[in-house]
Amino acid sequence: MYQYPFYTLSPQPSTVAPQKKLLKDQYEVLQIELGSGTYGKVKLALNHKINKKFAIKIISKSYMKQIFATQHILNELNYLQGCKHKNIVEYIEHFEDRDNIYIVLEYCEQGTLDELIKIKQKLTEEKAFHYFYQIAQAILYLHEKDIIHRDIKADNILLQNNNVKVCDFNWSIFLPNGGKAKPCVCGTTEYMPPEVITKQKHDKGVDIWSLGILLYYMLHGELLFRSKHKEELYEKICNKQQIKFNEKLSNECILLFQQMLAHQKRINIQQVLNSDWVIKMLKCKQNQNQLELTPIKCRSTAQESTRVSIVSDSSRFSNSKFTAKSLYTESPYKSKNQNQEIQHPMKVRSSALDQNNPAFRVEKRYFY
């Protein structure tokens, strides 16, 4: 009898696609990494329920506890949930599993301002102003809520439809009543002001300095202070030195630089938005019908320091946002007579402000 030869058949591939692992039964984390930082990675995710892309920040719980970063993450969640502004990245939701905390944010397709600057090498005054003004509006909004970002830099400015979205609140702090933060080296070295490097108490002026460094970067294509050695970089930042500007810069822009990068008597965000350069650029924009923007009323530094935020005494958590109290602030009124009447300035009215969203406190909460 004829014997048929025996052939080993290779297994046929399954026609059933492997089931995708979904976070919270809706988010598929894609392989595209949007960014990374000290506490985790940011990846692109697709929400299958609404077929929309989002950015998901994935934070390892074990690593977070290892570097004692719990409070930083809680602060970021608190500020993201409490801040609603067109130039601040939109918080969607957060959730957790046994290993990680997931923060879902809006997805900004155009990347970061840093990536744009590296491609363009440097921006014109008109283009730089387009981004600068929006970042300043976001800072105004935060400062009106007594929040200091403390890490304003090109990497933390996302771009969406040619508009900016400030992100990353890991270093942010709540400073009510014109208080000052205790000495702390925070933020990114190249953008740090002298008072942070020398470990002095600091206030909202740190964001103004960083904004000035960022504006210089946009206009020159390189950071103002650069060095491979941290000690040398510290020395450059702390020693007052003459700044070399692009010859094509306007006098109004150079004057604003000098005011924002002052070691003492630095201007505040209201004064930035009322500077000659900003008003000049606004008029040009309005004449071209590109932006409908109006400079806000100026408020003095003295008035800024006497502003008192009205907040609830309740420390209970709500479903909509965290409530918190900063552990690193010192009120300028603690040694004054408590019966002394404090003059409250009028509120600055601006499209950048959400008058219905009050300042909030910050307190510790731990994930389990």
UniProtKB/TrEMBL annotation:
Residues 28-278 form the Protein kinase domain. The keyword Nucleotide-binding applies. InterPro entries: Aur-like (IPR030616), Prot_kinase_dom (IPR000719), Protein_kinase_ATP_BS (IPR017441), Ser/Thr_kinase_AS (IPR008271). The active site is at D151. It comes from the Eukaryota. Keywords: ATP-binding, Kinase, Nucleotide-binding, Serine/threonine-protein kinase, Transferase. There is a cross-link at K153 (Glycyl lysine isopeptide (Lys-Gly) (interchain with G-Cter in SUMO2)). GO terms for molecular function: ATP binding; protein serine/threonine kinase activity. Pfam families: Pkinase (PF00069). ATP binds at K57, D168. SMART domains: S_TKc. Belongs to the protein kinase superfamily. This is Protein kinase domain-containing protein.
